[in-house]
Design brief:
Shape: globular
InterPro entries: SAM-dependent_MTases_sf, TylF_MeTrfase
Largest sheet: 7 strands, mixed
CATH topology: Rossmann fold
Strand order of the largest sheet: 3-2-1-4-5-7-6
Number of domains: 1
Pfam family, one: TylF
Keywords: Antibiotic biosynthesis, Magnesium, Metal-binding, Methyltransferase, S-adenosyl-L-methionine, Transferase
CATH superfamily: Vaccinia Virus protein VP39
Distance between the termini: 33 Å
Family: Belongs to the methyltransferase TylF/MycF family.
Number of helices: 10
Order of helices and strands: HHHEHEHHHEHEHEHEE
Protein name: Macrocin O-methyltransferase
Length: 241
Amino acid sequence: MIKVLTGTVYEDPAHRENFSHRDSTYREEVRNEGRDWPANAHTMIGIKRLENIRECVHDVIGNNVPGDLVETGVWRGGACILMRGILRAHDVRDRTVWVADSFQGIPDVGEDGYAGDRKMALHRRNSVLAVSEDEVRRNFRNYDLLDEQVRFLPGWFKDTLPTAPIDALAVLRMDGDLYESTWDTLTNLYPKVSVGGYVIVDDYMMCPPCKDAVDEYRTKFDITDELITIDRDGVYWQRTK
């Protein structure tokens, strides 16, 4: 399933606007690291970060860590599709996969926004990054994984996450790129992560504003759990207290 989600089984080329190299040639080593934007595949995070999701979800199931699974910033939905597929494979029926996204792409933070977010100006790439809720639902459906255990939270994180009807989380995966998106996610969802649960940061080493938000939040709330490297960009930690 991981190889299908990343497009490696059919060597899906990179999108013509990909950021890692100047042409759309499929390159296995780039796709494994999630360093391009696939033309057709359902995720851009690569093999290693999908394997990290699989390992974290398997662990919380095996150790009965309470809570649901969520990704904030889902693009075409591939990471959440994997989460739901793992629950199906283990016949887990008491956990929900939450799919949180604006479904409009990256926000323009404006002149008053965080300086690093303004510098990246990722909203200018929304021709690639904006994926509609209908398309993500269709992708779930194509894997026969769209059911009552998948719930959508459409809208900007600052508007949706404070009132999200989530009681507890076993896995929190953040892929919001920006400082503000990452800070909004941590502020509203980290307190719901169960001890023994996981926090995964997709863009920690790729997007400096994301790293800034994570480091500041961890410092502010005295979070000392080890940051573990996944690949060139992603990190995660397991909550211990």
